[in-house]
Write a structure and sequence with these properties.
InterPro entries: Glc-repressible_Grg1. It is built from 2 helices and no strands. The chain is an all-alpha fold.
Length: about 70
């Protein structure tokens, strides 16, 4: 039963990782858009950095749960 739980947790972390990655890419595009106000671009750049960190965090958690599910 524990292996199933860990596999489910790995799936949840994969979804979170994917969402963070998509948000990061969107924020990067906003940060590059010269039609946007400077404040908007700076805010998007900062958010992209945070999204990158979240993406890495969720990726690491996913791997931990995958390992727990297979051992």
């Amino acid at each position: 039963m524990e292996k199933i739980s860990e596999a489910c947790k790995a799936g949840v972390e994969k979804v979170k990782e994917t969402c963070s990655g998509a948000s990061k890419e969107t924020n990067k595009e906003i940060a590059k858009d010269s039609d946007q106000k400077v404040g908007t671009r700076v805010g998007a750049a900062i958010d992209a950095v945070g999204d990158k960190a979240d993406e890495a965090k969720h990726g690491a958690k996913k791997e931990v749960h995958k390992q727990e599910a297979t051992h």
